[in-house]
Amino acid sequence: MKIRKLVLVGPVRLSGEVQISGSKNATLPIMAGALLAQERCVLHNVPRLKDVETMARLLRVLGMEVKEDYPTLTITPRRAKKTLAPYSIVRTMRGSFCVLGPLLARHKRAQVSLPGGCVIGVRPVDLHLKGLAELGAQIKVEGGYVIASTRGLKGAKIYLGGMFGSSVLATANVMMASTLADGVTIIENAACEPEIEDLARFLNKMGAKISGAGTPWIRIEGVKRLTGAEHTVIPDRIEAGTFLIAGAMTRGDVVLKGADPQHLGAVLDLLKRTGVGLKVYRDGRIRVKGKRRIISQNVATLPYPGFPTDLQAQFMAMMSIADGTSVITERIYPDRFMHVPELNRMGANIKREGPYAVVQGVRHLKGAPVMASDLRASAALVLAGLSAKGRTDISRIYHLERGYERLKEKLKGLGAELWEEKE
Questions:
Q1: Which of 368, 34, 80 is closest to 179 using CA atoms?
Q2: What is the model's pTM?
Q3: Active-site residue among 41, 98, 118, 192?
């Protein structure tokens, strides 16, 4: 594999319009949900990303035909009933673990590798296994694989609270499995994220009977079979938040098209408090105008509708050049601070104390060679490079391709100076 790095030259003032792509975090479980269908499913507004291509590859291994004609995917079941999700694929992307519930419900058995993905700390699958076991699955873990079987899933009342709150993927896995269970399932302390709502809308189009998605209390009445469906994926709120922060951080003037402002309440509120100019138009466009002075703000990541952990690194990059001191608290993944030493290499003044990062704003950042550790840390380093003086070289840019569609092209369209080079 050719090893590449991303080179940026700053500072730059971003200006113009940018189209927000479909949501990666909604697409992946919806693709897994297509395993439940007995007919073809057609998905629209699907982003062309490494993670989506990886999930498509996994579905093919599991016996599905997947036609990739972005932004549309067509997923058609074949006769083969394959239930092994191999380590070689699942280890590369945590989202692929959500095939466990659909495989178990549809075929009464599943063998799925324990997941991988970004290295941002321990993210256990205990809530997934707890929920499926309470539906009547027999589960064991052997040789790095979860092996699950059932004679028939039964509806149950399931509490999905964890140490750091609700789990989006566990909610998705249990909700999908429950659609074909006998009886009614109640999920308490369910994740409320828009991606869960979108998955429920897709499953209901297939004939599922789900109510309460988007609240902590989801009710699923099991049905005998699910048909195919056609569905349009929601916009990516994390991509939208990243571009909002980019516009603010570079003192730019950026208009987002295709985002859903209703999914960005906590982000918009926090940005307003930093002194940024924001306007939401009736057609859903969002305009961000950066100011010369950025006012420092404290923030804690929380499950939706709180401030998302997937924007913590990007907001920290912005706070690194704000006036004053801010404290950023990570309450979802306490170890998600691997971007701190890289931002400090660029002249930031950040000190970590357990789940807290104390950020003392500096006048400006300076370009430097840095290394991306995970998807959202990569985005934070890109934002830092856009606002920094001089040249920034970011290694391991393959992380960006997992979660941001055509990021380089979109940034160039806003006036950024960036290109790729071989390492």
A1: 34
A2: 0.96
A3: 118
